[in-house]
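Subject: two folds for Thursday's group meeting

Dear M.,

Sorry for the delay on this. The cluster queue was jammed most of the week, so I only got both jobs back this morning. I'm pasting them in the order they finished. Each block is the input sequence followed by the predicted structure tokens. Could you check whether the formatting survives your parser before we put anything on slides? The first protein is the one we discussed after the seminar.
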Amino acid sequence: MEITAKTRLLVVIGNPVAHSLSPIMHNAAIEALGIDAVYVALHCPAGAFVGLLQGLAAVGAAGNVTVPYKEAAAQAVGRQTDLCTQVGACNTFWSEGGVLVGDNTDVAGVLASLEHLGAATAREWLLLGTGGSARAVAIASTRVGARLYVRSRDAARAQQFVTWARGHGVSADVATATVGADLAINATPLGLREADPLPLEPERSAALGAGLDLVYAPGETAWVRLLHRAGVPAQDGREMLLYQGVAAFSRFFPEAAAPTELMRAALARTLGPARETAGV
């Protein structure tokens, strides 16, 4: 890949961001299609995000946003798509006529992941987390008529999230210790490091119908491995990463069709094979 002054810059911004496989996935697609662009990861320290985004807009860059900046990105872009406004979180941005446009492709990623897992018919979801990715899960639940139970380490934050979700047409309640669920979705960062605690206790995990971890890691995350040992259909966040990336690619390059299987293969080379499981 030859990089010149004409090469279009694409980025993923986060803190942390070193774990992100978006560059591997998108650069594989860019090279296969012969597009003059390059996709890189940018670590952004706290307090620098808005300035960084403004600088990227000035040079016509595009890209993605990951933890913990998705909600801040929605407020920082010049124009939001309707879905970005509904979710209140932006994970994809690009420039149009000098204006930075923000979108959310995580909703599409969640729904495609559940289809791949075989859990699209689950109607009671236990949502772990209340950040930008959790907002996308909440809006995704309205697309399939699922009821949402929200769990957070901060009880007040869980209640605030439920209030926000209900205001956007989500059937939502704060999770209790006894609530059951067909499906649990981890929308926290827990699992990025092997030493992280599990997002859900083993005994509650074993009672699930299925589990979707939005975090991904080589060899799958510790929580997904635990679910497999308990006989629970589960997958990590690689399909989420893939399908939100495919949707984002169409925003970056509307004239080109994203090579989905090539992008999946690029992820598999780094993450290793995922265990296939039958869903609920």
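Second protein, same layout:
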Amino acid sequence: MLKRYPQNPILVPSSKHKYYSKKVYNPTIILDNDTYHMFFRGVGNDWISRILQATSIDGVNFKVIEHPAIYPEHTWEAKGCEDPRITYINNRYWLSYTAFDGITARSALASSTNLVTWQKHSLIFPHLSHPRREQLPSEWHKSAAIFPEKCNGKYTLFFGDNHIWSAISDDLINWQTNPTPVINPRKAFFDSAYIEMGPTPIKTNKGWLILYHGIDKFSQDRTYRLGAALVSLDNPSKVIWRCSKPILEPREDYESSGLVDILPGGFEALSKISTDYIDELAKKHQLPRTVFCCGAIKMGETIKIYYGACDTRICLATVDLATIFAS
């Protein structure tokens, strides 16, 4: 359904750069003064995730800034800063990311006035405990994406994996969660086993466009696909439409073979696996295939989607809104 950029991938790991020598993936994107600012997850030789920044004039050719923008500084993020989402509100950039302490993943927040110097605001939900957390600890909370404007006088964010929940705030720092999910997995669909929040919600004349990820099974050869939904402009907890088919699924070789994070043994196992062995597993359909989107920009009636391909490289695809809504 999406039109892939012919020269994909647009960013790949580089052995010359210690912070992203192994993996680049799951970018968020924002356009500021005709410059694209991409913040992406990079993994280097130490197998620690950091969030790096890259800039571009054309949205395709990116120059990576050498020093990470967000990196582990506290115990609650000691093993990695992952998968950012960025929003611009009240003359300030708000960047949410997943903070991993080695055991539990939690959503964290940082902000900046200039996209250079970042102030961390710690965990978004310091004491979260939701009841419907199948196969995950109750305090586990990932993939927070803040709406770019208030809804009904409140700031809103969607977050979560397994289900997508909502939270509201008066100040963007202190958040009150709703224990009832907004979006759930659906039986007999591409997202029947698991869903996870995607990029910052996009405002359209039909409602807020929510992009998310879904998988149909928990087996080792699972496939991550990209789905879409619309929620009400005034009441984001109200779903008014949801796609019946994925809008993007792995198809190309660069989306089907790579250093996928959910391999048994995690990063420790990945660090010992050769590229040839990875390719062999992929050909035997013994690896998850993933497209994972944290960043999207609306330009007229077109959505530019920046996504991670097989947790190893960054790609670009475009789609018009009419095509999405027909899915």
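Two things I noticed about the second structure. The chain has one domain: 3-325. The chain has a mean pLDDT of 91.

Cheers,
T.
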